[in-house]
Amino acid sequence: MNRTPDRRSFLASSAAAAGLLALPKIAAATQEKGGISLGVQSYTFRNFDLEPALKRMKELGLKSAEFYSKHLPPDASPEKLKGILDLCKEYGVAPVGFGVSQFTKDHDKNKKVFEFGKAVGVKYLSASPSLDSFDSLDKLCEEYKIAIAIHPHGPTGKDSRDKWWSAEVILKAVKDHHKLIGSCLDTGHLIRMAQLGEKIDPAEQVRVMGDRNFGMHLKDHDNKRKTDVVFGDPAGVLDVAAVFKALKEVKFTGAVAIEYEANPSDPSPDMKKCVAYVRETVKDVG
Q1: pTM, to two decimals
Q2: Does the 14-285 domain belong in CATH 3.40.50.150?
């Protein structure tokens, strides 16, 4: 889904955010055993405004989120942004990531996204950058210490695919660039590549990216019905345990955001099953 925000108006400067809530202390409290932050991609609750979405996240026991533009608008005024962050604090949900954002060779425009990221305290920006954006992103990652996490989107049509469709494609593009440029693998979209004849193992994709894994969208998908399914559903194919074992192997300390695109009118019952499944699986993995 295209979640790119309208950035015609933006925070004027980092100084405008000086009075905003600082979130690193909240984010630190979200770390699970082993250093992994378990949360949600707020797109899961796209049919809800921010506060009802946060209420549902809290009910699921999730304390972090990768937000998308409806819930955390990059063009919000400093006053509105502070109100959003105060609400996040009230519900105990820390923004650890934002996206999916587009980046081009326009350095000034890219910089505004990083300014926004700094203001809200995220660790990474999930992204779909153009091939000519990396010189700009190298400089910005170094300056802001915020990671760019490239998001594979899988098939985009019957015979076409996203330009960032696999870890191998991403790594080839970023290996000679700043160490904070890597991936936010989306297990559901990797699974969807089977629709184009590409059978991809999400756990192996984690190993390919190694220390360039900065985030993850965790979801399972039924390619026959072309819909997301809860973890453990017989129609799904994702080996959640294998994914977490791979994350453990590469010493991942980033954010795993459960994303569920089915049942947008009421995703909470299915999300409750997904969260319980992940927590039980993590115990088994150790």
Answers
A1: 0.88
A2: no
